[in-house]
Amino acid sequence: MPKHTLFVCKSCHRSSEEAAKNPPFDGTLFIDKLNTLHIENFLHDELEIQPVGCLWACSHACVVSVCYPDKPTYLFTNLNPESSAVALLEFMKLYINSSKGTIPWKQVSEILHSAIFAQIPPVVVD
User: Fold this and answer.
1) H/E stretch holding 112
2) What letter does residue 36 receive in the DSSP assignment?
């Protein structure tokens, strides 16, 4: 059975263009924070945190996407690695536990309200 996947852009950087040329990138720091929290507290058998080279939203860093077959894909932008990691993993718990992947707005952490950029309908394979 496939795992729910949290794709995290590892090249994201929220600061100036000059700082963005010098690692460690905010995306990499975000991945480290998510992995640490995931190992300590979250759904190991059902969630995979997967780094990706780029999610093409560089002016809106840090960027992540959430997906699973037959559930909508969510795209989050402008995430702060320090303050949004726990909220994002809490969102993942809701997403994993939802049979259709739809999360009531009032259950989404306020930290993520301005970060949800898109909910993309699931691909339906006949």
Assistant:
1) helix 110-113
2) H
